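Subject: Sanity check before I submit

Could someone independently write out the structure tokens for this chain? I want to compare against mine line by line before I put it in a report. The sequence has 330 residues.
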Amino acid sequence: MTNDGSRPVLVYGATGHTGQAVVGALTERGLVAVLAGRDPDRLGALAGELGVESRAFGVDAVPDLAGVGLVVNCAGPFADTALPLARAALAAGAHYVDIAAEQPSTLALLHSWAGRAERAGVVVMPGVGFFGALGDLVLTSLVGQADDGAPWDRVDVEVELAGWHPTDGTLATGDRNPGDRLRLHEGLLVTTPATTAPGRVELRLSEHLLVPRHLPVRTLQTTVNASAIEDLEAARDLTPDERLRAREAGDPYSVRVIARRGDEERTAEVAGEDFYAVTGPLVAEVALALLSGGLPPGARAPGELPDPAGLLGRLPLSRVKPSATFGPVP
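---
Independent answer below. Compare away.
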């Protein structure tokens, strides 16, 4: 099934911090957003400001979503919201996208839901956020979607955050996902002990599930500067209003990707002013691609989209190295 931009995009969690950024980016690109979530009063107020439709419901009773072309899930914890919303999207013949960084729901959608999405003629794409999609897109732009097929021995995704002022959803999602997390190591998803390096912390999120869906990578490691984790934990002692005020200045970031095989090494880096805010235009660009029929149906990773480097070039990035089009760089 090929959807077009005449079918609206339902954004669940539309009144949240990231949800509002997604709605704004969709509107800027000429797409019609339907605001959805649990709180009818907040939804109604925001929908009235924007002049759009709103629908209030919980994930325990998702209504018929007929007429919607795409469901964007911005409401974590995704362990609770992803599967009910994906099920409703597929039943309505709509694509499903979420911004999850967490692994359990991403793993379920990529594997257990692949056949269902294909039969429904739609795309299911988890992990379309700063953590997950951005690293996948940079890596794909760097090594190429149709490379020579030789596996990459190791890929490092090095995230640097000037600060991490989490949303309430980020904290709730972390609490909902305790325990060991998977890492791509020697071609397998394993729960080996985390490795450490001075000033850096290993971060096992959805990249480890998205990348091996379409790229021949044997070992992947994602890390973040230790000071960002300290900020994240310190935020638990703040009130929601204090966290909101701290986040207003934005959280500048950079994502550096290093791919190695044999004696070959390639490096690329992107940077921006606010790692939460970049998710809005990222989701909106993915929405445009899916609604235009840019991918065959099934469970897909963001890096499988046509022209991933071009997509990156349309994001509000302050720095792109070596270039907006990357290509195989020696």
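---
OP: Matches mine. For the report I'm noting this point. The mean pLDDT is 91.
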